[in-house]
Design brief:
By secondary structure, this protein is of the alpha+beta class. It contains 16 helices and 14 strands. It has a five-stranded antiparallel beta sheet with strand order 3-2-6-5-4, sandwiched between helices. A five-stranded mixed beta sheet has the order 9-11-12-14-13, with helices on one face. It has a two-stranded antiparallel ribbon with strand order 1-7. A hairpin with a 3-residue loop joins strand 13 and strand 14.
């Protein structure tokens, strides 16, 4: 009797010992990675099969942080959206490209791969096969791991949890502000250069013409880059609504549910990216919650924008059994509150449920409360430095303002990074903004 019982247990033990546990643990770690760690975990997962000096992910799904990077600091600190966008435009879907391309300001050997469904881009710099690894098998495995990471990014953004929305909004606002400052600065510089080169006091006409043309092209490129950056964090309301229609199409195809879409006005103010993502996620969640009721056959969803708010209305034709205090509605309400919005549910017995959501397009400014930042345990001087960072000042300006050396400012900045658990000035500023520090 004991032999008959032990035999399958031994077989199962032999089976599990033959499994590639390191790879399975790597896949599990990647599948559950938070967005802020996705690049680091993907690079760690790929290194045993394909060596690289840096790994860069570019995805427009994440409006606040479209670049996710890990590896050599001299590369990841200099790579630009313009370079990544140009590289992505030249690629087909799900096919590894190898060659030299401009990245971080100079031509580099690259491997690049674009995710089919999201258009997200993966770039590996200075790639070479890992020692003892089969090159083709390594590429296949990296492709598989990239699909998991890209899908993880899509799922996290689609869920639009409150923490993501807060970080995304703060980072988006900071990036637009810094880009606007850089555009003003360099536009002034280039316009001054153009005025000088066009001056009649310069007698080398050929040189003046050549340099004028080059400067003019640089000015156009800089402004185009500014427009491109703004485009990453804003979505026209009509386009956002069309993406919502695509999101909900499977429900109409497989559930038998009829969804009526009331089109928003074609003109009007564009939506910040995090508001557009949140709006789509909230409508999806409301439709799914409504479908849990009996005798639901039709849902109507409508968007509008009054210039200050995204206005959402979702109504069903059920029997009025949607519970305003249901966990699913509570989760959606937390998403709404993360963007300082309001959610109201009106249930009409035997006539269905009507849900109204208001999402402000601009996050109301508020002074930082002491309790908001008390947990950071900042010294008074560190708080001063952080406030100057939020104001967009560089280390030299902060040093002059506070009457301290630039090295002392760098010391305080390093302490801020450690206490705030961030790795860059942009992350520190975004976190401070999300806690109301102005």
């Amino acid at each position: 009797m004991s032999t008959a019982i032990d035999h399958p247990l031994k077989a199962a033990s032999l089976l599990t010992t033959d499994l590639p546990w390191p790879l399975l643990h790597t896949i599990a770690s990647l599948a559950e990675a938070p967005l802020i760690q996705i690049a680091e975990r993907l690079r760690a997962a790929t290194l045993p099969y394909l060596k690289s000096s840096a790994l860069v992910i570019f995805t427009e799904d994440c409006t606040g942080r479209p670049q996710k990077k890990a590896g050599a600091e001299e590369i990841i600190s200099r790579v630009s959206i313009t370079e990544l966008d140009a590289l992505r435009a030249s690629l087909g879907d799900e096919t590894f490209w190898s060659g030299k391309a401009e990245l971080a300001g100079e031509p580099r050997p690259l491997y690049a791969l674009k995710h089919a469904s999201s258009g997200a881009l993966l770039v590996l710099t200075d790639p070479e096969p890992a020692i003892g690894a089969d090159h083709d098998a390594g590429l296949d495995l990296v492709t598989y791991l990239w699909r998991i990471a890209a899908q993880r990014i899509q799922e996290k953004v689609a869920d639009a949890p409150p923490s993501y929305l807060l970080e995304s909004r703060a980072a988006s606002a900071e990036r637009v502000r810094v880009t606007a400052e850089l555009t003003d600065l360099h536009s002034t510089t280039l316009e001054t250069l153009l005025a000088a080169l066009r001056s009649s006091s310069l007698d080398d006409a050929a040189a003046r013409t050549t340099v004028t043309d080059l400067a003019a092209k640089a000015l156009v490129g800089l402004r185009t880059h500014s427009d491109r950056t703004t485009g990453l964090v804003e979505v026209p309301v009509a386009i956002a609504f069309e993406r919502l229609r695509e999101d909900l199409r499977p429900l109409t195809r497989f559930s038998g549910l009829e969804i009526e879409f009331i089109e928003p006005p074609q003109n009007g103010r564009a939506l910040p990216g995090e508001v557009a993502h949140a709006g789509r996620a909230i409508v999806r969640g409301l439709v799914l919650a409504m479908m849990e009721q009996p005798e639901i056959s039709r849902v109507r969803t409508q968007w509008d924008c009054d210039g200050e708010n995204l206005l959402i209305n979702v109504r069903d034709d059920g029997r009025g059994m949607l519970a305003p205090d249901a966990p699913s509605i509570g989760r959606l309400d937390r998403q709404v509150q993360a963007l300082a919005g309001q959610l109201r549910v009106e249930v009409m017995p035997r006539w269905g449920a009507d849900v109204f959501v208001t999402l402000p397009l601009d996050l109301p400014a508020r002074p930082a409360a002491a309790g908001d930042i008390a947990g950071w345990d900042l010294a008074p001087r560190e708080l001063e430095v952080l406030q100057h960072l939020v104001a967009g000042q560089r280390n030299r300006t902060i040093a002059l303002t506070l009457g301290i050396s630039e090295n002392t400012v760098k010391f305080h900045v390093r302490n801020l990074f450690r206490k705030l658990d961030v790795s860059s000035r942009t992350e520190a500023i975004a976190l401070a903004n999300s806690h109301g520090l102005r």
